[in-house]
Please model this.
Amino acid sequence: MSRLLISIALIILSQYANARSETKGLVEGEIIVRFPGQFNQAVAQSKLDVNQYKIKEVINPTLNMYLVEVEEPAVVAIKKLRFNEAILYAQPNHYIQYRGDLGPTTNSSEAAQSLLANNLLRGLPNDPLMNQMWSLMDPSVGTGGISANLVWNTSVGGKDQGGNDIVVAVVDGGVDVKHPDLIQNIWINKEEIPDNQIDDDGNGFVDDVYGWNAFNNNGNISSDGHGTHVTGTIGAMGNNSLGISGVNWNVKVMTVMGASGTTATVAKAYGYVIEQKKLWFASKGKKGANIVATNSSFGIDNVNCASGDYPIWNDLYENMGKLGILSATATANNNVNVDEVGDVPTGCLSEYIVTITNTQRDNTKYISAGYGLKTIDLGAPGTNIYSTLPGATFGLLTGTSMATPHVAGSIGLLHSVASPAFYEQYINDPGKAALVLKEALLQGTDPLPSLKGITVSGGKLNVSKAAQLVKNFRGFRSK
Model:
């Protein structure tokens, strides 16, 4: 990859991201309403005064949740609905933002330098740009990486103990699904016939071949620089003599377009993940997808998740978590204490989210990254991360957005090395298994002075140490 192509790719990505920036706030004329009981749109509408509140869209059938149009200001409508005993809650439809700085923090000449000595590349995949992948390496190389190369001696990802494909869902702005270093690892819904306008597999989504576009409510997946970069870190194909490798050489990455939009769009995106995982369990693996993690590199800065304006977030993460899905979430790209200023989603309370800040090659926290002793679980490399970009290109980006896929990818890799007892737990009680895996991630961190006292674990992701913990899992002791 030439310096010129890297620079061009980064310029295009920055222009694209700037064009899509959202104004922080709420969407007037719309609110989100959740009802108790089973999904039934007609019943839901009957509980609302149709002259004031009209259901615009179903945004999550599992949670019986709707986007509702209102004539009056959203805040006024929500206050009125809090006295309606027929609903669980109403909340604003907020705007959401990406969490990537969308640019390198070093100049292109430094970016092009080899980060690893050639003799240290032995035993690694034959991908020609692996010398850029410091973030995946172990401490003996002299970097602040996550030690994924030590796990590759045992597993390079792909399948779990039951022989099931492991799937990580990237909830973002889209992915270049034809990128030559991603194409073999992109999840494909084999039960769906492309472009026939029919829901062939009966999962409630038409033509969802590569995933779902929650912006437009269809299966049309577009290319996006941010999402493509994130996807490469999770699962760029390893050992294919091309480009780089992700945390997993082999994994299936599901594309779900739904970030940098609104809360309702995010809810629809997560809803697709929920429905696919429910279908996988119900069909005993014949349909749907064995999703074990979501990657969410977006959020809302400086807001209190427990204020009553954001209940949907915890409900979504709890629902996914009970299906065995951990959600890797990026914290704010600001040097703020999330415990004090708040954040969505990394200030939310669900046990099933893994909250991540950005660390550098020298094992220090990046200056423009959030922290919190109670709220931010661990650090992961997010500064000058080399990964895939649209159009068969590669380049550097920085941000908590780049740290988070190291964790999401590691969750997938851990499922491939976990013990048979863990797999049995996962099939019989997926929610409990997800928390076992989260605990392994936190217990297996490398302690860092820069994170001590300002994160839950006090350390940075080490997937090799976490792998040893899930390999040794023998089940829960009976009381």
Confidence is low (pLDDT under 50) at residues 1-24, 107-115. The two ends are 58 Å apart (CA to CA). The chain is about 30% helix and 20% strand. The first helix runs from residue 3 to 19.
